[in-house]
């Protein structure tokens, strides 16, 4: 019996060792598959991260390129709202000067100072008046409000400015509203 007992545990150990090897062998393909899956997921996440980083860099560069354009558009909008104020100051000055009252001289000087200050502020922002009087009519910068016969001016010449026009860089903020010569013929 002792021989049987000796062989029984030994044979049991051998059977157990075979089962361990079989379990390890069975697990090895699972570990390899898991490792391959994890590596594939890692690569996919890395690719997504790199794409997101590239998209963000492109977005940042586009915003940097657009920033000056948007800033200039904002200034143009503000200037467009300020131009009627400048027009009214000019009209007030013309009315005060036409009245000729000596007591109004101080008011004229004050209004003129405000007009000059506003004009300087706009010029400092790159706003310039569109040349009009005596110029050839240009529909890209002038708006004809009236045509008049004028034997003294060639046809298509601006003979009077109703409202001054302004531009900033190449963008017209407001076209000059003008009276245009129709030449020597009458209507």
Number of helices: 2
CATH level-4 homologous superfamily of the domain at 128-187: Head domain of nucleotide exchange factor GrpE
What fraction of the residues are assigned to beta strands by DSSP? 15-25%
Through-space gap between termini: 140 Å
Overall average residue pLDDT: 82
Give the strand order, joined by hyphens, for the main sheet. 1-4-5
Please compute the radius of gyration using only Cα atoms: 43 Å
Largest β-sheet summary:
3 strands, antiparallel
As for the CATH topology of the domain at 128-187, it is Nucleotide Exchange Factor Grpe, Chain A, domain 2
Shape descriptor: elongated
Helical percent range?
A: 55-70%
What's the helix-strand series? HHEEEEEE
CATH class of the domain at 128-187: Mainly Beta
Q: How many strands appear in the DSSP assignment?
A: 6
Low-confidence stretches: 1-11
CATH A-level architecture of the domain at 128-187: Roll
Class computed from helices, strands and strand pairing? alpha+beta
Q: Care to describe what's here?
A:
This protein is an alpha+beta fold. The chain has a domain at 128-187: Roll (Nucleotide Exchange Factor Grpe, Chain A, domain 2). Helix content is 63%, strand content 16%. The protein has 2 helices and 6 strands; from the N terminus they run H-H-E-E-E-E-E-E. It has helices spanning 2-99, 105-124, and strands spanning 127-129, 142-148, 158-163, 166-168, 171-174, 176-181. The strands form 2 sheets. The protein has a 3-stranded antiparallel beta sheet. A 3-stranded mixed beta sheet has the order 2-6-3, with no helix packed on it. A hairpin with a 2-residue loop joins strand 4 and strand 5. Helix 1 packs antiparallel against helix 2 (105-124). The chain is elongated and about 105 Å long. The protein starts with a helix and ends in a 6-residue tail after the last strand.
């Amino acid at each position: 019996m002792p021989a049987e007992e000796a062989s029984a545990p030994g044979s049991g150990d051998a059977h157990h060792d075979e089962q361990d090897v079989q379990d390890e062998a069975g697990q090895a393909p699972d570990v390899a598959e898991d490792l391959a899956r994890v590596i594939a997921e890692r690569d996919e996440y890395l690719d997504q991260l790199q794409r997101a980083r590239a998209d963000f860099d492109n977005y940042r560069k586009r915003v940097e390129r657009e920033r000056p354009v948007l800033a200039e558009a904002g200034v143009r909008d503000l200037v467009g709202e300020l131009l009627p104020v400048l027009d009214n100051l000019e009209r007030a000055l013309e009315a005060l000067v036409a009245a000729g009252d000596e007591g109004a001289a101080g008011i004229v000087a004050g209004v003129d100072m405000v007009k000059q200050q506003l004009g300087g502020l706009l010029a400092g922002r790159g706003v310039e008046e569109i040349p009009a009087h005596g110029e050839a009519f240009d529909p890209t910068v002038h708006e004809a409000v009236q045509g008049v016969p004028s034997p003294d001016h060639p046809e298509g010449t601006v003979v009077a400015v109703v409202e001054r026009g302004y531009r900033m860089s190449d963008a017209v903020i407001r076209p000059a509203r003008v009276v245009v010569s129709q030449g020597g013929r009458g209507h």
